[in-house]
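Good day; I would like, with your permission, to put a structural problem before you. What I wish to show you is a protein chain and, alongside it, a tokenised description of its three-dimensional fold. Thank you for your consideration; the sequence and its tokens are set out here:
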Amino acid sequence: MRNYLAGLFRVGRALALAGATGLLVSATLPAAALANSPAPPIASTRGHLVPVYAGHSLDTYRPIRAPQPALRAATTNNTLAQTSTITVTYHGFSAKAQAAFQAAVNVWQSIVVSDKVIHVNASWTDLGSASGILGQAGANNLFLENDGLWYPGPLEESRCHCNADTGAEITAEFNSAFPYWYKGTDGNVPGNSWDLETVVLHELGHGLGFFSTFRVFSGAGQWGYQDNTSTNHATRFDRNEWDQATGGARLTSYSNGVKPSSALKTQLTDGSVFLGGSHLQAVLGKRAKLYAPSPWQGGSSNSHLDETRFAPGTVHALMTPVLNNGEAIHDPGAATVAIFQDIGWTVAGQGDNQPPTIATPVVNIVAPQVATASAKVRVSWAAAADPSGISRYDLQRQDGAAAWTSVALATPTSTSAVVPVTRGSNTAFRVRATDGASNTGAWAQTVSAQMATVQQTPSAKLVYSGPWASTGVSGSFGGSVLKSSTSAATATFTFNGTSVALVAVRSPSRGIAQVTLDGGAPQVVDLYSSAKKTKAVVWAPSAPLAPGSHTVAVRVTGTKNASATGARVDVDAFLVWP
């Protein structure tokens, strides 16, 4: 493998490609497509395949997983919300390879918006055991619109709402001679493997329109393709290419595209080609550097983001010319999605400028746990609904009059978090949502409240019936509890609040109690534990209660766990959240 990789690395980094970029031949659009098109294209031309190469690195990368933020809707149980349909015809793929391919398909068909099916003709084929090519793909045809620009077939069909292509819109090939594929979809790519899902996601991006028509032949640069009247036209991707990071000139201004230009060739190979576009610049704050090495690398130059500027394993690195071993990028990233908007695609969430609204979070005490000076509560909220899906929630807390601080969530779209609060001290929580179109809603805030601790002492609100006796227990609240082993002995606690919890002692000698809330069905609470635990929160409702008065009844059953040595039940305290 070492010798193979050494050669692979040289080929991959050099990106030496011969003949991967074919000349495009003009043709006229079929009459049937014209008849069905509300904004018909006026000509078509053949597309070309754009490759991605295997690189090699000793680095390790954290996987960038499929896009949960902007492209997963709460209403679909965190599955990818589909905005287009991509159908694949497979040739030579194993079941595992098809699964990896489909995972990439699922991502793209939740990003680009189209009412026409996008057909992909995919082949698992020998692209050379020492070529370094992982895969290559492209649009089969480009279509010319009245704005004088070429559009790849899938994009054209989404724009004209017509079936411009009579066959598959995209052709994709993946190297069956490459022996180090990782075909899983979890992003956990071994360091000696290359991730198929990432390669497919990359290549489908080319098929959907991420490519340039600039080319270098015999020391001169050209761009665009001619229509059937020999007039030259660019793509929108071409029109967004510039010769400087700021200011400067469009690369299409260097020549008419047909006449070879040595000045254009110099510009294309001097390492300073930049991609503009309003959406892209809104994401990055500047133009994006494109891959523009010297010498020109046919099929790779200008059709990829720069490998150095967008380093391997980073969020915008999917569309660079090289994929390293161990690298998993299952999310195209905001910059790539913005480029698709700039070349004419409608993407999921585009046009949504309304921030999501969210209900006030609720708080309930968690059981089981062991209380100390603090106790854990679960802060939860209803999932927000938004046409663009929810990309993340932000949860914050405020202790007393201190500044608000962020509370970490298990995932960006989690709708609850368990946090400790100090008993007897005021705490407030607030939450807000951001949707898939980057609209952030207003904070929804709880009132500042404190967890009360009501110890076992009898009172008008804590009434005991049957025999109960006070006894000292080290480690309990106040140093003592009320105990009973007599069946039907009951402690009844009335309180105002939205959450309550029973604090007792667990030990080898403790028995079984029944707890009822507001006269409901009794819940069995077994207080047996092989080791003694004081200040144990042994019961709490699983969800917050309606505000107002509630009653909890703790009844001694006189029974025990088979492993227990006694049936005693202790009441140490009740915790209450108002």
User: Anything to note?
Assistant: The chain has nine helices and 39 strands. The radius of gyration is 32 Å.
